[in-house]
Amino acid sequence: LRAEIENTNTLNLSLDDCVTMALEKNLDIRIRLIQPEIDEFSLAGARGAYDPSFAFSASQRFNASPGSSDPNSVLFGRGSDTFTERFAPTIDGKLPFGTTYSLGGSLRRQSGTSFTSHQYNSDLSLNLRQPLLKNFMIDGDRQTIAVNKRSLKISELQLRHQLMRTINSVEQSYFELLFRRDNVRVREASLRLAEQLLSDNRRRVELGAMAPLEEKQAESQVAARKSDLLSARASLDTEMNRLKALLSDEFSSWSMAWIEPKDKLLAVVHPFDIQQSWSEGMMARPDLLQSKESLERQDIVLRYRKNQLLPSLDLQLTYGHTGLGTDVGGGLIGIRTGTGQNYSYGLVLRIPFSNKIAKNSYRASRKQKEKLILQHKQLEQQVIIEIDNAVKAARTSYLQIEATREARLYAEAALEAEQKKYLNGKSTSFVVLQLQRDLTAARSNEIRSLADYNKSLSVLWLSEGSTLRRRSLNVEVK
Q1: Residue 406 confidence (pLDDT) above 80
Q2: By C-alpha distance, which of 98, 101, 102 is closest to 141?
């Protein structure tokens, strides 16, 4: 596309072409696309709480004891020393239902004056801890994962909303560009009429059939029409730049391009059904869906805060095997055969005296939910009003099309009749110029009403959340 833009000064683009370009290159969309990726990384990171970890330790220890005195003699007993080497691997982690586990063992080799030969001690044990009240149904890690899932969904809805807003902006700019292009043509036609009248007046003044004043009036109107045309062209350039910014992530590559819209301003009849629009808005508006997701996310936080009010009651289980021998194989026999067993189980109860932190956190979360409920209700009301206003504006714009068309036809007929009178010497150039201005305004108003109607339909689709559906766009974030 960039090469095409650089190699030509004119781009013939339809509205569909513009929407496609915006979806690929618009900077607002590209910025918004990053957030779901960030939230996906956050979710994946939160799930890492259940990844097991491995630890391994190796140590050496030497212990020397001096000899003790013999009460029956003046001699001291012989001292002793012990040399211990220990190797201990451990795997620990947490399960999704709150259970923490630790599987570990050790192998110790001891030698010294107290041992006739090397002695090997080994053990292997599994430790489990399961919350039964606090942190049973939900804990900090499960809350974080659930909240991050909702945050990811919210960011996807925000992306969907950004796509709709960008498409609406493209549609608004495209229809405005159509109006300003056609308005330039109207101003050019108006200038030609004024110049033709000026030419006729000059010829009549030269023949002495008209006062010089009327020639000056025509010259004044030509200058005014040129000024209007320059303003119209400047407005066209401004709107074209606005559309270019929506379609591209590098404006410099478009700076010399001229966008020529392929579509025309048409008045396609639209069946306005306020009840249907309200119903679709309640189900499809991304901001309303975001609000619902925020409420559900707050429910997760509230459920966690409520769980933290409970006392801590944990079940602890331990089971292990031990071994002893004069070599490594002998030291591990007890672990393999289970001849040296040990186990324990019990409950650990912990009750805080005041629990102020948990209580006040729960109260704050409950108030936050009340706030979100009211904000959601307020948003629903705003959506209903917005859709109602959009439907009424679209209806009015459609009715104005017929009114402005009739006004333009009457203005054309009035000018044509007055020009005939002028040619027969029964009118003045002042009246003809006035009717020319009226016709120019009527033509401009007609295309203005056509553009406004199409723009109002775009606003209605955005208000009821049907922009993507009407363009057959299915947005899925993967």
Answers
A1: yes
A2: 98
